[in-house]
Design a protein that fits this description.
By secondary structure, this protein is an alpha/beta fold. Strands 1, 2, 10, 11, 12, 13, 14 and 15 form an eight-stranded mixed β-sheet that branches. A three-stranded parallel β-sheet has the order 5-8-9. A two-stranded antiparallel ribbon has the order 3-4. The two termini are 34 Å apart. The N terminus is likely disordered.
Length: 374
Amino acid sequence: MLPPSSSVRLLVPSIAGLVVALLLAGCGISTGERAVGSDADPSALRTAPPLADVEPLEDVRAWDGEAVVAADDAIDPVAEAPEQHLPVTLTDAQGTEVRVEDASRVLALDVHGTLARTVAELGLADVLVGRDVSTQVAGLDDLPLVTQDGHDLVAEAILELDPTLVVTDTSLGPWDVVLQVRDAGIPVVVLEPERTLENVGGLVHGVAEALGVPEEGAALAERTRREIDAVTAEVARVAPADEGERLRMVFLYVRGQSGVYYMFGEGSGADSLIDAIGGYDVAEEIGWNGMKPLTDEGLVAAQPDLVLMMSGGLESAGGVDGLLERLPALAETPAGRHRRFVAMGDAAVLGFGPATASVLEALTVAAYAPGELS
């Protein structure tokens, strides 16, 4: 079980903030010679069976095609309407002391939708009164939006909902809106924006502490870690054990209409994701730290076997065909020649919350047993 914390860790500047800045700015599979499905519809979702039920390809490079896969996003609360033990005084990620006396009307807002989902997984979906655009999971997607033009917070929309607590991080802006909400007398708890496999439990504990349900937070963190460990064990079964045989993977962030092409490296969260699904993180090999604009030289050096992406990014580039046309150097890599692209929803793939295990499972099936997708 991940250890609880009496206070959220102080915010340390990290590449996660840069990843968020980018976010704010802004198919078929085969196991053989031909891809199955329509490349004309890059948003067509494929679902994955349990990883324990699949057999990996003998040669993990023996497939051509692309897949947009969906993780299981069903909410499974650890408790039903748990009792909230309030008031509570805590120190948030910015070192601000916050006293929470009432958490009956809550806004949980971040660029991935992870915070609202965590509230629901704690058994407190009913206290949520609004959402950000990334909170699209069934049961929460009918809440009123408090963001516009993508991920911009709207002060008027927030204040109209009369929240008694706002839980957020630094991934949404403008920051003046957060300060305006705080000046209006509404407690605002700011959590750390970093999302990696290692800090999932800390995120859960931070949300649970703010809502006055620490015991449920401990239970959810333990369950999430147990699920991640189970998937990780299955990844070890299907991914090549020899590092030299692992798929060379990179994570590309693309917004085709804006001409934004970035490759995520060490410290971006993508490196944690690649390691977790048994891939070979090319970024470490070529010294690609954080996230940087994509270059032909970077792609040539990387020579990826497989490209991970956000599905919205792939669609914005016109699918695989459009992306390869825009990035000719990518077409000359093994991933480009064999069209090995695996994409997942923008809010899910790097969210690293209670749904992490299902994200890892779906991506792993797509990478090593693509013929099992349906």
